[in-house]
Structures are given as structure tokens and as C-alpha cells.
Amino acid sequence: MSSAILLLILNILFLSQSENQIQQEIRLAVGQEKNLRLFRNETGSLPNPRTGKWVDFGLAKGSSDLIGFKTIEVTPDMVGEKLAVFTSIEVKNKRGKVSELQHNWLQVVKKAGGITGVARSIQDALNILKIN
After folding, report:
1. Domains and CATH numbers, the chain
2. Is residue 57 helix, strand or coil?
């Protein structure tokens, strides 16, 4: 098999990776960080089995796939306290598009001082979280 064909196959496999797979890999990659906690935030609607009425679930429409906080230490001139910085990571595959609601959510979190970004790979997540 030629190297060009092998490269094409690897690209197809990488591009076809689902957002759930990427998300799981990110969670595993950062799971041992002591100053970071990320949680899966599933959003959507389902019918209530007792009433049949639709019930929304998740943090908010447009909220990111991974929600949590990163603890940072404030510098000594800021009293030396630690605080948790709200963290919101939207996970997309290579072809995935951020919806308008998702974009708005990320902008609100960012403007409020949170850590946000769109991750299409583990490396993207590590960059967003400023983890070496």
C-alpha cells in the first residue's frame, strides 16, 4: 500500500471520528488534572413518561458539551486565594459547526471571565485549558 493511500485512509478515519469519541478522549486526557473538573452536559428534550409533556434537560440551550471549572491560584498581590474559573468546552468533530446558540453561550461565558473554546481534538482542549 502506498504512503499516499495510507495517509488518505488515516485522514478518513480521523475525520469520521464522532464528537462523542473526541469528547471521551478529552475527558480521559484531562481527567488526572488535580485543578480541573469537567462534566458531560447533555442537553435536549424528552417526553415525560407519566404526562407525555416534553421536558428540557441540560444546563441551557446552546450550552457546551463539557462544563466545569479550573482552580487557579490568585497571585500574592491578590491575597493568595484559590478560585474556580467556570469552564465551558464545545466539542465538535472536524466538520462539525458551532450553532448560533452555542456561539452565543461561549461568548457570554468568555465575557464573564470564564474559560471557553471549541475543541476538535485533545490538543485543542489542552490548549483551551492551558495544560502543557
Report:
1. 18-128 (3.40.1350.10)
2. strand
Residue carrying the nine cell digits 462544563? 67
Q: Is there a contact between 88 and 109 (Cβ–Cβ < 8 Å)? A: yes
For the residues 30-44, what does the mean pLDDT come to?
Answer: 90
What percentage of residues in the chain have a pLDDT greater than 90? 60
C-alpha grid cell, residue 98: 458551532
- Look up the pTM and report it: 0.68
Distance CA(46)–CA(99), nearest Å, equals: 21
Reference 67, options 37, 26, 29, 101; nearest CA is 37
- pLDDT tens string 77-91: 878 888 889 999 999
In this structure, the chain runs to a length of: 132
